[in-house]
Amino acid sequence: MMVKKSITADAMNLHRKLTVVDCHCDTVLQVAKGKAKLGQYNETGHIDLYKLQEGGTRVQFFALFIETIFKPQRALSRTLQLIDTFDTEIESCSHVLSPGLNMKQIKRELKSGKIIAVMGIEGGEALNGDISALRIFYKLGVRFLGLTWNQRNDIADGVGEKITGGGLTCFGRNVVQEMNRLGMIVDLAHVSEAGFWDVLEISKFPVMVSHANCHSLCQHPRNLNDDQIKALAETKGIFGLSFVPEFLGKGKTGISDLLDHIDHVAGLAGTDVIALGSDFDGIEETPVGLNDCCCYPSITAGLLDRGYTEKEIKGIMGENMLRFMKKTLN
Asked: 28-41 pLDDT, tens per residue?
């Protein structure tokens, strides 16, 4: 791991002890488009094998993002293409990367020094309205599902449809219940507020919002309000704070803005609910100092500077997410 001159020795020593987890990236789509390879250093990309190692990432969630052009008729076939892309990349880097399938296997692979790659789908259009597709995806290694993107689908309304007040459909309720049975993580990033509350009411297990920020600090429709954040904390869920500039504030944003959002959640609901959900390779611009996944030591240093304890920092940087995974992944 390359030591950054601006980071103190204390911060680097602490960072080396951490199990860094990132709840969301869109790197697989960049690979599918021929713009990146996980095993090759990429000057412009945010995530590759070398950057993951340098920044200290130990568990990376890879979302399979289905572009709008494929929705709805070709969403299922596109998802299968992206699963194949993921599998091919992991196989090519199998000396370092291992797919994350269950917590027993993940713990074993972490002890061996490997980086864990957890595969999920961003958008329930992939199911094509068929619950059996969910079970097949699970057998193929999919371990989390974002119920919607911004639009409406067979499962629920996305945030782009919030004017309707629509939440989960009957099919959506069946999907959540089947995900609970299978041991898949329910991801509520992009879901309408009505859908958010519907899921919290019916899910038997805690849920995740993989990449969003605080509406109180930045009034973006993708950000969560304080009641949602407190409800996530009360139900032992997880909130992945995102690096998307538009979710952090107006104008040029940086690490300090991310830390402000962390401060807000910590003051509102404690630190146990906080995780990181970068959205790397899904954003064209990044905040200053958060250029790619090599940045994580800088976040550790920033948390130290703001007075967070070692235990709190370990939680925010990854252990909160690991604890959440123990409750949700079979």
From this structure: 999 999 999 999 99
How many domains would you assign to the chain? Answer: 1
In a domain, 306, yes or no: yes
Q: State the residue range of the domain holding 46.
A: 9-328
Helix, strand, coil percent content, the chain, rounded in steps of 5: 45, 15, 40
> What global pTM score does this model have?
0.96
CB-count exposure of residue 135 (10 Å: 0-12, 13-18, 19+): middle
Question: What six digits make up the tokens of 14?
Answer: 């602490």
Alpha-carbon distance of 60 to 125, in angstroms, equals 23
Output DSSP code: residue 145. Answer: E
Q: Residue 196 in contact with residue 166, Cβ under 8 Å?
A: no
Q: Give the side-chain half-sphere CA count within 13 A for 297.
A: 24
Is 203 inside a domain boundary? yes
CATH number of the domain encompassing residue 227: 3.20.20.140
